[in-house]
Amino acid sequence: MGGCIMPLPPWHPESLAARQPFLRRRGLLVRATRAFFEARGYTEVETPYGVPAPGEEVHLRAFRTERVEPEGRVQPLWLHTSPEFAMKRLLVAGAGPIFQLARVWRNGEASALHAPEFTMLEWYRPGATLSSLMHETETYLRAVLPPTVHCRGVTTDLGHFERITVAEAFSAFAGFDLLSAGEDPQALAATAGTRLRASEDWEDLFFRLLLERVEPNLGRTHPTFLTHWPACQAALARRDPTDQRVAERFELFVCGIELANAFVELTDAAEQRRRFEADRARRHAITGPDWPLDEDFLAALAYGMPEAAGIALGFDRLTMIASGAHRIEQVLWLASGGKY
Q: Which residue among 58, 190, 191, 287 sits deepest, i.e. has the most Cβ atoms within 10 Å of its Cβ?
């Protein structure tokens, strides 16, 4: 008789035994990561997970919780989607170069590469530039990974890291000049030789073209830094002083997987407020009102944040690349919700 074979629960001894090789590699990676940053003068920090405002990203969904104070007052809180705002507050306070292996939460995400609760490695260095941060990221990956990695059917050689701007990537792989169309969706569709779908705005079309035509070519033979994103796609990054159409942002791809996202940080509080308010209006139009604007973060920026660059790297994905795992659940001790 045929039938479906039910997967074993993650607590089953056979299930854990199957994950153990990947989990041992994860442990080695944690130790190597801490050793790398401590040797380079970084301080490991811990910041709150429950926060009044988890971020201002338009499309990320946060988990809601609350704090009940001794006298009974209830304060709404959210599980953060990144420790970025908190770590930047520490830069204002004079903490210097800092890193954190933080648990973060993003609701509505689940796939072979996504988990609703996962680990993010973030680090920030005052005085760093986009180029110096890319160099440090290369140095880190070469320190914690073998020279060649294989994951999800792709083999990548870490002997050479490619650097390509978003505009160059669209020219090479999609065959058109992205920046010439500005932020006009009709102009972008015409330039790209495609039709604008119903209710599709410039951002929707940009990401459709990025996912369909560009990303399949990145981070395969060698790791790829995709740099200098359109300014509207980098709400927390400084605009490039040599070309105001783009921002000083990069994403890193290894084994065809988006691994990290980095900025030269915006330190202008007034400009950051304008960007937050624009993003909040767009998010609220999609999902409705949520949390208050993070006035404390803006006050910290106004007080004075040093020029800095920072990066958020998906540590579970890095573990997949290091161990050759096929799905993110293989590198987790227990998946959120207990499903594998």
A: 191
CA distance 258 to 317: 9
Report the interhelical angle of 295-304 vs 269-287 (nearest 10°): 160
Q: Does domain 13-161+222-338 have CATH number 2.60.40.420?
A: no
In one letter, which amino acid is 44? E
Query: Residue 26 and residue 244: Cα distance in Å, rounded?
Result: 41
Residues pairing with 43 in the sheet: 98
Query: Starting at the edge strand that comes first in sequence, how are the strands of the sheet with 74-79 ordered?
Result: 50-51, 74-79, 63-68
Helix (H) or strand (E) holding 282: helix 269-287
Residue pLDDT, tens place only, 183-210: 999 999 999 999 999 989 999 999 999 9
Task: Report which of 274, 217, 226, 224 is spatially closest to residue 249, judged by C-alpha positions.
Answer: 226
Give residue 230's identity as a one-letter amino acid code.
P
Model confidence pLDDT, tens digit, residues 219-241:
999 999 999 999 999 999 999 99
* 73 vs 70: CA distance, rounded Å: 7
| Residue entry with tokens 């958020």 | 312
Q: Are 31 and 37 in contact (CB under 8 A)?
A: no
Indicate the pTM of the whole model.
0.95
Is 149 in contact with 222 (CB distance < 8 Å)?
A: no
